[in-house]
Amino acid sequence: MLPYPLLLIYRNFKRFKSTFFINLIGLSTGLACGLLIYLWISDERSFDRYHALDGRLYQVMENRRTAAGIETQTGTVPLLAEALRREMPEIEFVATTTPVPFFPGFTLAAGGQHLNAVPKYADPAFFQLFSYPLLVGTPATVLRDKNGIVLSEALATKLFGSPQNSLGKAVEWQMADIKQTCLVAGVFAGVPRNSSEQFDCVLPFASFKDLMQMGETIKWDDDGPFNTYLALKEGADPAQFQAKLAGLLKTKSAQAQARGRTLFVRPFSAGYLHSTYENGIATGGRITYVRLFALIAGLILVIASINFMNLFTAKASRRVKEVGIRKALGASRAALVRQYLTESVVMALLALIVAVGLVQLVLPQFSELTGKPLALRWEPQLVGASLALALGTGLLAGSYPAFYLSGFQPAVVLKGKLPTRAGDVWTRQGLVVLQFTLSVLFIVAVVVVNAQLAFIQRQPLGYDKAHVLRFDTGGKAARQQAAFLAEVRKLPGVVQASSVLGGFFGGRYVSEVSWRGSAYQ
């Protein structure tokens, strides 16, 4: 039964060439936009979901009651991990880590080479919690030695030629005027691109506590900036664990109880998209952009589908006798509906092939625009999504024309008359109005966003950004900053030079500041 409908489709395509190509261009453009947005959304949703313990992996967070409401923060006191390990049997692994980025100007030196690196301090269970495969070392022990360091594969290769050659070798790290030597205890494969945290090396958190002389000075009342992660055992009930965790701080600190401090857990993979909290409740984050672009993709496909419907019904007068003859020969309305839906789906599949070519053509520019190295990898998920997109668009675009054409009465249409009903006229006009309304909305949105970006770019920043340079210092320059800055000021063209620990452009961790009369006093 399939060759005959396809033969009819071929004849109609051949007969109405102009309509066919206009429809093909419209649908393929819409599908190409949908595919590009799908690739971006798929990349956004993949962040932090590659860990083997993803379904049981959580981050501990804290809510605090203030005069302005409930404030949510990711920072926790470093005593928390050990307390959870002792008192919560539902936990399989737990670890405290420093946030990324946290340290400015961190450099590594070995064999005469000096490299900038992004470090992270973590408890021994870090590599058991997170799936960063170790090329050298074992997950359970690689961070137990205070004098050890775990390098990424890229860093180990640059410093020692290969990961295997780096084991046991001495590495000197420096931050500002602090310098220490440690031994390579392991090498991990590196951090995937779709990780919300990017770092080059991991050091034991115990060495950080020694470095900062934390020791016995740590109290439960402290406002720790550290992250605490845990993995529940298989079968553990997250809701029951959450109920136990909520009141933990109240048993440790009277001040915590007075300030309304409560703990809760958030799935680790949800942190990238759902990072915004208002009054203790997750209200959005990057997920807002994901939903917005999904809506835009849907509206673009609706416009393309409406364009298809309008062109399909516009040529109804030239196909009206075909309907009459086929009905007179015994064709049922259901058969005609299937024929026209098949025609629209075939058109959509052809448009998908063209759309894939368009996507491959513009993908490098789109990747540069989004800052993501996107690629069309024909994995089962992408193939299924592409086919579903094409089939859904074909059925949506062909539904109204199919039922419209198949509803003609043979006795009327064989006389060459095209039946007109008020409802059909209003439907076609309504589709045209909707199509132009959505198009105008898109154009207005683009103009407004472009004007906003231009306005932001023209605003004075308080300094001449074309003549202000910022760079990290290391080595002798970090240890002797006064002498270094004095030499910099002597350079031709330099008006003034200064230094700062951290960064005033953002991207570094800034600890909480309180003052007399603030909500925390």
Description:
This protein has helices at residues 3-15, 17-45, 80-87, 126-129, 153-160, 163-166, 205-211, 238-246, 248-252, 254-258, 287-314, 316-328, 333-370, 380-406, 410-413, 422-458, 476-479, 481-489, and strands spanning 57-66, 69-73, 91-97, 106-110, 113-116, 119-122, 134-136, 148-152, 170-175, 178-188, 201-204, 227-232, 262-267, 276-278, 281-284. By secondary structure, it is of the alpha+beta class. It has two domains: 3-45 and 288-455, no CATH class; 54-272, no CATH class. The strands form three sheets. Strands 4, 5, 6, 7, 8, 9, 10 and 11 form an eight-stranded mixed β-sheet that branches. Strands 1, 2, 3, 12 and 13 form a five-stranded antiparallel β-sheet that branches. A two-stranded antiparallel sheet has the order 14-15. Strand 14 (276-278) and strand 15 form a beta hairpin. Helix 2 (17-45) runs antiparallel to helix 11 (287-314) and helix 11 packs parallel to helix 14. The chain starts with a helix and ends in a 32-residue tail after the last helix. The model is unreliable at 505-521 (pLDDT under 50).
Key terms:
521 residues, alpha+beta, disordered C terminus, single chain, five-stranded antiparallel beta sheet
Query: Percent helix among the residues?
Result: 40-55%
Distance between the termini: 80 Å
Sheet with the most strands, sense and barrel status: 8 strands, mixed
- How would you describe the shape? elongated
Domain module tally: 2
β-strand percent reads: 15-25%
Uncertain runs with pLDDT below 50, 5 residues or more?
505-521
Structural class: alpha+beta
The overall average pLDDT, rounded, is: 82
Q: Using the CA coordinates, give the radius of gyration.
A: 32 Å
How many DSSP-defined strands? 15
Main location: membrane
Transmembrane segments: 20-41, 292-312, 345-363, 383-405, 425-449
GO cellular component, one term: plasma membrane
Subcellular location: Cell membrane
